């Protein structure tokens, strides 16, 4: 997909472009607390997808202890009309390039163990399982009234070694 541009997002971009209540809530919260960088994939002025690069320590103690200082890729979403067109790969490649440039040697992400299509994509991109068992984590659901409810769910944590920047 050659007409995709990727750039870092601002709070205003999130308010303007992210329609999903769950994503908008969490992405604004992450940006407000300066936990990382949100990358947007755009086709023209329209949103094709997004990915959050989290530099702040993860909430899960097992990840903080087991992968100290390893950035996390979170909230990867590709809008339905752009799925299976390379947008996810472009966002992941841009995230990896930025992480390499900042001197990071590894990156991690979490995926629901039933999301076989995403797992296949990550494995194709050289991500491997961090450990054999799933991590117990949670998802916050944003209710109509703006309140949130935490629901526990399993998470498969994958890691990738990043090659040093070329050049």
Topology:
Elements: E1 4-8, H1 11-17, H2 21-32, E2 36-43, E3 46-54, H3 61-66, E4 72-78, H4 87-101, E5 106-111, H5 116-124, E6 128-129, E7 135-142, E8 148-161
Parallel strand pairs: 4-5
Antiparallel strand pairs: 1-2, 2-3, 3-4, 5-8, 6-8, 7-8
Structure description:
GO terms for molecular function: acyltransferase activity, transferring groups other than amino-acyl groups. InterPro entries: Acyl_CoA_acyltransferase, GNAT_dom, YpeA/RimI_acetyltransf. It comes from Actinoplanes awajinensis subsp. mycoplanecinus. With about 170 residues, this protein is α+β, with helices and mostly antiparallel strands. The chain has one domain: Gcn5-related N-acetyltransferase (GNAT) (Aminopeptidase, 3-Layer(aba) Sandwich), CATH 3.40.630. It contains 5 helices and 8 strands. Strands 1, 2, 3, 4, 5, 6, 7 and 8 form an 8-stranded mixed sheet that branches. The radius of gyration is 16 Å and the shape is globular.
What CATH first level would be assigned? Alpha Beta
Beginning-to-end CA distance, first to last residue: 26 Å
Q: What's the β-strand tally?
A: 8
Mean pLDDT across all amino acids: 93
Q: Give me the strand/helix succession.
A: EHHEEHEHEHEEE
| Largest sheet properties | 8 strands, mixed
Helix content: 25-40%
Structural class: alpha+beta
Radius of gyration: 16 Å
What best-fitting shape do the alpha-carbon axes yield? globular
Q: What is the level-2 CATH architecture name?
A: 3-Layer(aba) Sandwich
Q: How many domains, in number, for the residues?
A: 1
CATH fold title = Aminopeptidase
**CATH homologous superfamily annotation:** Gcn5-related N-acetyltransferase (GNAT)
> What count of helical segments does DSSP give?
5
Regions with pLDDT < 50 over 5+ consecutive residues?
A: none
Strand content: 35-45%
Q: What is the quaternary state of this protein?
A: single chain
Protein name: N-acetyltransferase domain-containing protein
GO molecular function: acyltransferase activity, transferring groups other than amino-acyl groups
InterPro entries: Acyl_CoA_acyltransferase, GNAT_dom, YpeA/RimI_acetyltransf
Keywords: Acyltransferase, Transferase
